[in-house]
Design a protein that fits this description.
Largest sheet: none
Number of strands: 0
Strand content: under 5%
Order of helices and strands: HHHHHHHH
Shape: globular
Number of helices: 8
Structural class: mainly alpha
């Protein structure tokens, strides 16, 4: 649809579906653990990480499933060589985030939660479009295939975790080191980082 053409020949359907299903199962495990962890310790997350903003906990919980679907769609499109659509959903994600940030800024809000909604809207909206485009085929596969995929994915996943910690460390350190009465400063730092980093999400669609 929309005139987008595949860039490379398609892989064998059965093999592709097996890898996509394995990726989905492997991705569900840490996602479920994170969801349960955040929900079980939401008071700690709210007070020690999110500067007392209880709404941000629910935004985080709502964003995680959309993030999983978004990454699954990206991997499926890349694996099938559909880079035009891959770029399209990346641009859609970034554009939706821009729209939310712009609306929040024009509305005069200073709450980090309202900026965080941009991630929920961007990823979920782009994932829905991507799911419609690619269809994400799933199939019954043996446990051994999931284990093998998980083993190969472990190192990559660990490196991505470290990258996320490093990227978000300014906010985490700011929350940990902030003294009494500095919550507003931490909120401003977090909002600034969101605004500064948002344009970077356009880059993967162009590279």
């Amino acid at each position: 649809p929309f005139g987008f053409a595949d860039a490379v020949p398609q892989p064998r359907v059965g093999a592709a579906a097996e890898q996509i299903t394995a990726a989905c199962v492997v991705g569900l495990v840490p996602s479920f653990v994170i969801l349960v962890g955040v929900a079980a310790f939401r008071a700690v997350v709210r007070d020690d990480v999110l500067a007392g903003d209880g709404r941000m906990v629910w935004v985080l919980l709502a964003t995680l499933p959309g993030f999983l679907a978004f990454e699954l769609v990206r991997g499926t499109l890349a694996g099938r060589g559909r880079f035009a659509w891959y770029s399209a959903i990346m641009i859609l994600d970034a554009s939706l985030r821009f729209a939310v940030v712009l609306a929040v800024t024009l509305g005069g809000s200073k709450l980090a939660t309202n900026y965080g909604i941009g991630m929920l809207v961007g990823m979920s909206g782009a994932a829905l479009v991507g799911l419609f485009v690619t269809g994400v085929p799933l199939m019954r596969i043996p446990v051994s295939a999931v284990v093998e995929f998980g083993r190969r994915f472990a190192t990559f996943g660990f490196s991505q975790l470290l990258a996320q910690v490093a990227m978000n460390s300014p906010v985490l350190l700011g929350v940990a080191l902030a003294g009494d009465g500095e919550a507003d400063v931490v909120s401003r730092v977090g909002s600034t980082l969101v605004l500064v980093r948002t344009p970077l999400y356009l880059l993967p669609a162009l590279t």
